[in-house]
Structures are given as C-alpha cells and as structure tokens.
Design goal:
Elements (H helix, E strand, L loop, with lengths): L10 E5 L2 E5 L14 E8 L6 H13 L4 E6 L14 H12 L5 E3 L2 H5 L5 H11 L3 E8 H5 L7 H7 L1 E5 L16 E4 L8 H10 L9 H9 L7
Parallel strand pairs: 3-4, 3-6, 4-5, 6-7, 7-8
Antiparallel strand pairs: 1-2
Bound molecules: adenosine-5'-triphosphate (ATP) and nicotinate mononucleotide.
Length: 229
C-alpha cells in the first residue's frame, strides 16, 4: 500500500474521519451556481476500466453533489504511445458495460470521434458547448494530477472546469502549484487497482474477477483482449 500524503498547510478539511491538509486553506468545493447542472467528467484510457475508476467517480459524485458523471474514454492517449493500447471501440464498449447500471453515469464518445491525439482542453471545450447550462468538474487520480502541467495548454484547463484530485494507492496526492481555487483534493476509498495490472493478469492467465466489473471480465474474454501481451 503506497503512501497517501496530502499537502500540509495552515487549514484542513475533515472527510470521513481522515484529516486532509490542503495547501491553500479549507477545501474549495468549486463553483456553486444555483440552477446550473453539476457535471462530473472522468477522463481515462480505460484499458480496461476497473473498480478504482468507478469508486473514484461515485465518491466524487456524492461529495460534490454532482448530477451526473460522464466517462470520456480517450481517443489517442498521446502520453501512452510507448505501449500498446486496445482499440478505442473496445475501451468504449467496456466503459459502457461498466457504467450501464448506474443512472448517474454516462459515457461520451467525443474524444474518440474527434480523432487525433486527445487533449483535455478539447474535451472540456466540447463538453461546455454541449452543456452550456452546466458547471464541469474534471476528476483525476493523484498520478494524473501530478502530471497535469505536462498536458497541452495546461494553463487553460482551470478556466474550463474545476479539477478534483483523488487519492490513489501508491501515489502522493499533491497540488503541483496549480492555480489557487482551481483544484480540490479529496480522499476516496483506496483500491490498489490499475489497468496495467489488469492487463498483465490477463496476459498471465490470472483472474481479474472483482478488479473489474463482471461484464468487463466477460468482454475481455470474448474479444480475447490482452492475451499474450
Ligand atoms: N485505483 C484508482 N484510484 C483512484 N484513481 C484512479 C485509480 N485508477 C485510475 N485512476 C484515475 O483514473 C483516471 C484514468 O486512469 P487510466 O484509465 O489511465 O487508468 P490506470 O489504471 O491509471 O491505467 P494504466 O495502468 O494503463 O496507466 C486517471 O485520472 C487516474 O489517475
Ligand atoms: O490534455 C493533455 O495533454 C492530456 C495528457 C495526458 C492525459 N490527459 C487526460 O487525462 C486523463 C487520464 O489520462 P490517462 O492517459 O492517464 O488515461 C484522460 O482524460 C486524458 O485525456 C490529457
């Protein structure tokens, strides 16, 4: 189990009995505009989607009173070109299967259908155009948040959505000098699951039951994904 250090600072926030120390004062919950829908956006390569993604989205939805969380599978994840990534259609369908039973969850094809490398500034601009009546909350794990300054047009991201960084076992959740007020850091139930580990398990013939939803286990099997990798 990795450490889950929080940035220390003068003020703190108490979440489910765990003291969380924030860098910039008490927890900032992002925009609160009466009459506007609160839309969570969970971007990911989802190769495959696993219970760590689903628990993070569910917990953020509850803590931030979101009306909906849209899962957005990447088209071409340009920072993962050093590895083999499953076809976008397979990643999309696994995401649909995994989220189908939750009425608060939906899946968007925008990053897949746009084509080319996936940049979150494009994702958020497109989602804003499609949902002009909504405030957007972009959900990222500790690892992704730590790398956010390497994303294209990173300085623009925080004008497009409020960012929520969630704890992830094995990673330290820090705010790497992001604009004050643009990010919230929260604790979510710790699930030490990664897509990398799921792929490796399938390749070795080990089970992924209970790491990913049952329908995703069956889809991986049916499509013979990750075998022999
Ligand atoms: N177990 C987890 N707990 C919390 N957040 C997670 C967890 N797994 C992934 N995330 C977050 O979900 C988002 C999408 O992750 P992604 O699809 O890249 O999965 P991954 O498990 O990190 O994949 P890979 O191992 O292939 O890099 C990222 O913001 C990531 O930080
Ligand atoms: O905008 C970018 O340049 C950028 C670079 C890397 C990752 N992202 C986004 O971060 C989310 C998680 O990505 P990944 O690669 O960890 O699955 C997903 O929505 C990606 O589109 C975005």
């Amino acid at each position: 189990m990795g450490e889950q250090d929080m940035p220390t600072g003068p003020a703190n926030d108490t979440t489910r009995g765990t003291e969380i120390r924030m860098a910039n004062g008490p927890r900032n919950n992002g925009p609160s505009n009466p009459g506007k829908r609160r839309l969570g956006v969970m971007g990911g390569t989802f190769d495959p989607i696993h219970h760590g993604h689903l628990v993070a989205a569910s917990e953020v939805a509850a803590q931030f009173h979101l009306d909906e969380v849209i899962f957005v599978p990447t088209g071409q994840p340009w920072q993962k070109t050093d590895r083999k990534v499953a076809l976008a259609e397979d990643r999309y369908l696994m995401t649909v299967i995994a989220t189908a039973e939750n009425p608060q969850f939906s899946v968007s094809r925008i990053d897949i259908d746009r084509g080319g490398p996936t940049y979150t500034t494009d994702t958020l601009r497109d989602l804003r155009a499609l949902n002009p009546d909504a405030d957007l909350f972009f959900i990222t794990g500790a690892d992704a948040l730590g790398a956010i300054l390497t994303w294209r047009d990173a300085e623009e991201l925080f004008s497009l959505a409020h960012f929520i960084g969630v704890t992830r076992p094995g990673h330290t959740l820090t705010d790497p000098g992001l604009p004050e007020g643009g990010v919230s850091l929260i604790e979510v139930p710790a699930l030490a699951i990664s897509s990398t580990d799921c792929r490796a398990r399938v390749a070795k013939g080990d089970p992924v039951w209970y790491l990913v939803p049952d329908g995703v286990v069956r889809y991986i099997d049916k499509r013979e994904l990750y075998r022999g990798e």
